[in-house]
Amino acid sequence: MKKPRLSICLATYNRAEHISETLESMIPQLTDEVEIVVVDGASTDATHEVVAGYCSICNRIKYKRLAAKGGVDQDFCKAVELAEGEYCWLFPDDDLFKPGAIRTVLNETAKGYSLIVVNAEVANKDFSKLLQARRLPIEENEIYSESSLQRLFHRVIPYISFIGCVVINRDLWLKREKERYFNTEFIHVGVIFQAPLPAPALVIAEPLISIRFGNAQWSQRAFEIWMIKWPNVLRSFAHISRNVRMTFENPPFSARLRQILTLRATGAYSLKEFNNWFTSRTSGVFWRLAAFTIALTPAFLLNFILLSLLNLRKIDSKMTIYTLENNKNNIFFRHDDEKSRFRELRTSNYSQQRIRDRFDA
Questions:
Q1: How far apart are alpha carbons 210 and 121 in whole angstroms?
Q2: In angstroms, rounded to a whole number, what is the distance separating the alpha carbons of residues 129 and 125?
Q3: Tell me, what's the pLDDT at 281?
Q4: Could you give the angle at which helices 19-26 and 47-57 cross, rounded to 10 degrees?
Q5: Which of 32, 41, 56, 95 is the most buried (most CB within 10 A)?
Q6: 43 — alpha (psi -120 to 50), left (phi > 0) or beta?
Q7: Rounded distance, CA 208 to CA 104, Å?
Q8: What gap in Å lies between CA 78 and CA 23, rounded to an integer?
């Protein structure tokens, strides 16, 4: 079998329900220049049987089932180690390739980039509703030279937390420090931005991926991931100027307050997280008091307050609200400036019907 130029690397754990859709979006696009490498972190469901079935009908799939769960960062590293391609496309186990995605990326890998960032669209959990046409709001491809790492950082950092957008030169990945970023959930960000890239980076404007929104396995750990781990990863990039980093590492108080309110409403923040993270860290008195108060506030009350604010800002064109038709009825807030982030609010039973009635009207 010909040595591949592109290895699609998946780290999976207990995704028997979804990984078949992911593989089926890839397999018809495979050529003799492409392989799929699946590392299974000791799944306890039927993931092994599902992937093994695809291996029996497609000889371009490698499957490695680990003896024990090691974590998503370590599993992606193992997938890259097992890969043979010149480039590795790191990909989740529940999202989809759009038609022509592999051919487009293959064409670009021939140009010698260190990194290719692939744009994506965002859909609801069963892909029946498009929520965002372009996760990165660009219309044309962008190229960043080796000396433009800070501009690249500023452009992609709100998006590149999504690992599926990353296509990286395998030799570059293998040479860079990785252990420092184990158990951060963002090893790819650490590898990319820990030092200048040796060759230019490309950002592809056309969405080649469909993201399955609202299906993350770490939702209940969202406070630790977004309020602790993510800022710590960004803080590690000493060669990125502090002014550039601080835009994302330490947003204004109002943004942090809105985020922790949202996390409380989703059930990802409570008195337990306050005791674990705020009592052992140096924080301003006012911020600690706010965090403590929010931890004690019932989620249904936050839902009521947020719904009231939505009523007041009904005509505000800077806010787009998406409702998902799934069992958790998520709400998203998106502000139309370059510092914007999705904010997820999983509504309680108390307010689900009221929200559905309001936004279906």
A1: 5
A2: 9
A3: 65
A4: 20
A5: 95
A6: beta
A7: 8
A8: 19
Q: What is the DSSP letter of 84?
A: -
| Residue 102, CA distances (Å) to 80, 119, 143, 248, 341 in order | 18, 13, 19, 31, 28
Q: Which two three-digit tokens encode residue 181?
A: 């970023």
Give the per-residue pLDDT at 344.
34
Query: How far is the CA of 105 from the CAs of 9, 83, 135, in angstroms?
Result: 14, 17, 18
C-alpha separations of 360 from 12, 275, 318, 334, 344 in Å: 36, 40, 20, 19, 19
Query: Which numeric CATH code is attached to 6-212?
Result: 3.90.550.10
| Residue 89 β-bridge partners | 8, 167
Residues 6+ apart with CB under 8 A from 310: 321, 358
Alpha-carbon distance 217 to 72, whole Å? 11
Q: 326 CB contacts (<8 Å, ≥6 apart)?
A: 124, 125, 126, 214
Q: Where are the domains of the chain?
A: 6-212, 219-360
Task: Collect the ranges in the chain with pLDDT lower than 50.
Answer: 314-361
Model pLDDT, residue 337: 32
Q: Which two tokens stand for residue 208?
A: 């080649």
Asked whether the CA dihedral 199, 174, 118, 100 is positive or negative, the reply is: positive
Q: What is the pLDDT of residues 298-322, one digit of tens each?
A: 876 776 666 566 556 543 322 223 3
180 neighbors 236 (Cβ within 8 angstroms): yes
Where does residue 133 rank: exposed (0-12), middle (13-18), buried (19+ CB within 10 A)?
exposed
Q: What b/e string do you get for 9-31 counting C-beta neighbours within 10 Å, with b at 16 or more?
A: bbbbbbbbebbebbbebbeebbe
Burial class for 95, CB neighbours closer than 10 Å (0-12, 13-18, 19+): buried
290: amino acid identity, one letter: A
What is the pLDDT, as a whole number, of residue 338?
27
Q: What is the pLDDT of residues 91-149, one digit of tens each?
A: 999 999 999 999 999 999 999 999 999 999 998 888 998 888 999 999 999 999 999 99
